[in-house]
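User: Hi! I'm working on a homework problem where we have to compare a predicted structure to a textbook description. Could you give me the structure for the chain below?
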Amino acid sequence: MYWLKRYLNIWFAFLRNSLVRDMSFRNNFWLELIAASSWVVMNLGFYILVYQHTEEIGQGSGWHFPEFLCFLATTTLITSVVQAFFMPNAQEFSELIRTGGLDFVLLKPIDTQFLVSFRKVSWSSLGNFVFALGLLGYSVWKMTTAETDPLVLSPIICLLYPLFVLLGIVMMYSLMMILAATSIWLGRNQTLYDFWFYITNFSRYPKEIYSGAWGLPLQYLFLFVVPILLVVNVPARMLAAPFRHQENPGLWYVEWYLPIFMVGAAVVSLSLSRAIFQWALRSYRSSSS
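Assistant: Happy to help. Predicted structure tokens:
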């Protein structure tokens, strides 16, 4: 396991160097932290306004306000990790290609995808991670202390929830690396973040809202073709009420195919991102050629 220890030491060095860099420009760090946190707070405020006009999103869906807070917290947990650890590197990848900096990356005695993916960390984005943990704790407290049909946590769900959050992060990372790899063919992919936002925006809502003649095709598309809906829906539904049998509180049931499919989708997406990244590198031409 020498290679694992070596890569962990390198990653910890990246974390330390990024923290030193951010603390060298503290005013900028605090401004980024405030800006990122403001977006999350305003998003929360929007849904507070929505739930003043309805008891649940989707009739009979089970997404009452405490359950949806769990969904929102899960969304924020996943996106904050992706934006902290992967987005800065993916955005810089096209600049490495344009300036020829990728030549020096390829010369390093380390896996290129690892170096490209992890060398920078945006510590300010992790403020939302802390906020999401607090929001998750509050939502679980509200669900477990409800007067009717209270949530009964089981050890297996407490173990599976972080596991499937991690799988969601893996799927987001894989999609990001596939988009970043296209920079080698396109030269300078300036639309990376825009396209990323458009695609991942579908994962921010419960799958129950995608219903009817227009909604169902979108639900099937983003569940089974581009499985972005799995990223938040599966872990959030494991922890929140929509995955509980309403007639038997405390008895858990699962749409069994969704978690199983998510495990397979995470493995396939990670393998696909690796294959596409390696294929793109073989197409790369040095800036000196």
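For your comparison, note the following. Residues 2-283 form one domain. The radius of gyration is 21 Å. Good luck with the assignment!
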